Amino acid sequence: MTSVSERLASWALGLSLKDIPELVRHSAKRHLLDGVGLAVAARRLGAAQAAFEVGSQFATPYGVRALGGDDLLAPEAAALVDGVLVHALDFDDTHAGGLVHATAVSLPAVFAAGQRERSTGADSLIGAVIGLETVCRVAAASPHGFHARGLHATSICGTLSSALVDSYLANVPVATATNALGIAGSLSGGLLEFLDTGSDTKTLHPGLASMNGLLAANLARAGGNGPNTVLEGRRGIFTTMSAREADPESIVADIGRRWECTQISIKPIPACQLLHVTLDAVTGSPGSWQDIDEVEAVVHPDSAGVVCEPRGPKNHPKSPYDAKFSLPWSLAARLIDGQVSLDTYSNEAIGRPEVAALAAKVRVLTGPTDVPAADASGEVRIHYTDGSEWEGRVAGSRGTPHNPLSDEDLQEKFLLNCGSHPISVALRDAIMNIEELPSLDSIHDLAAEIVQQEAVTV
After folding, report:
1. CATH 3.30.1330.120 intervals, the chain
2. pLDDT, tens only, 40-64
């Protein structure tokens, strides 16, 4: 039997637009729309400066553009910038089964390699489906296994998916794509240590993964070879990097018939996906936050380890990014402000003493483990000083496949991320009809025009 990576590469390189159901195409376009909007928002808000500075060091007259810019960069550098941009605000999508940010490592590979190869919009859409499907399937083969080891699944799995996207768009043989996957495995990584320090290295992970995926594919095209057992081998990525049992065969099971890229959640809240369901559960809570004596939040154990512990520091986040990974602090901010938005996590907002004081009143209880953490239900009980209680429950968070954002809601998010610029509608229409485009040029032209006219300083 051929290896898992050989079968995965064979599927990807043989994929055509007619093989992809309309629902899957539409889903992929929704995620591209969300990703482009997030990249434009990050540009407008001055995020991802380190990636810009480093990316500009790889300028070349034969290069490609990163979203929102006109400078020509080496494709690997453009992928770095785009990946950091899409993920910078932690407002990008999540696949619950693999707990990966799928678009943040798929879009950069598609846009960088697609420009380099002068790919049509139709081929770029196929590349997006390949990227989304691959990163979700690889990560879901060991649910929460990489995170349990202290590693970021998006970074590990996104390197392989980016290498496969590049291989498809470059139209290489299956053997070359298999080598690209093998090389990508040795370039995979991404530590979760940022959770204990308040640093934002996580924002770099998707960009580094896409950059390294393109580098791996380039090396394979130049004759480099990698192990075809990079997935299932006794020294492959699951054996060495996952703390839980993996099922590599599941990566290619029913591939082309069952589509994981339709199971990706789109965020309505700019924070870690694992705390969304708890924030949704307090919608409609009565009374004043000042009258709250205690809040009990029932949380999936895998979520608790990421967004609730260590408890003391979670009540007093060190940075905006740290606050996005604190369930007690975010829940307190939601109860005080009545909503959670990009402004919730500004430098000024995270130092509010009243939020920290209410966060200290949040008691975390662990709940059932029969579903992945990002698919868990939410349950909150609020105890008031007058002795009364209120309980809120939701089956899952808004934006998940079970409770998805409508096309209208997603488009509203996109337009707001673009600063409601007049030409953002044209950009939306270009992305949602990407299969009709002769190239990706118009998407980059429109995104750059929005950024150049709407940029702000923070």
Report:
1. 273-394
2. 999 999 999 999 999 999 999 999 9
- Which pTM does this prediction carry? 0.93
Token pair for residue 426? 């044209």
Query: How many Cβ atoms are within 10 Å of 425's Cβ, its own excluded?
Result: 15
* Residues found in the chain: 458
CATH 1.10.4100.10 occupies which residues in the chain?
A: 4-266+405-454
Q: Which residues pair with 374 in a beta bridge?
A: none
- Put the strands of the sheet holding 362-366 in their side by side order: 362-366, 292-299, 378-384, 389-394
Q: Two tokens at 373?
A: 């953490």
Rounded Cα distance between 20 and 452, Å, is: 36
Please give the CATH number for the structural domain made up of 273-394: 3.30.1330.120
Residue 117, both tokens: 């190869």
User: Strand 94-95 relative to strand 362-366: parallel, antiparallel, unpaired?
Assistant: unpaired
Pick left, alpha or beta for residue 99 (phi over 0 → left; psi -120 to 50 → alpha; otherwise beta).
Answer: left
Q: Are 456 and 45 in contact (CB under 8 A)?
A: yes
In percent, the amount of the chain with pLDDT more than 90 equals 93
Phi, psi (degrees; rounded to nearest 5) at 198: 85, 5
292 - beta bridge partners? 384
Task: Return the CATH fold of 4-266+405-454.
Answer: 2-methylcitrate dehydratase PrpD (1.10.4100)
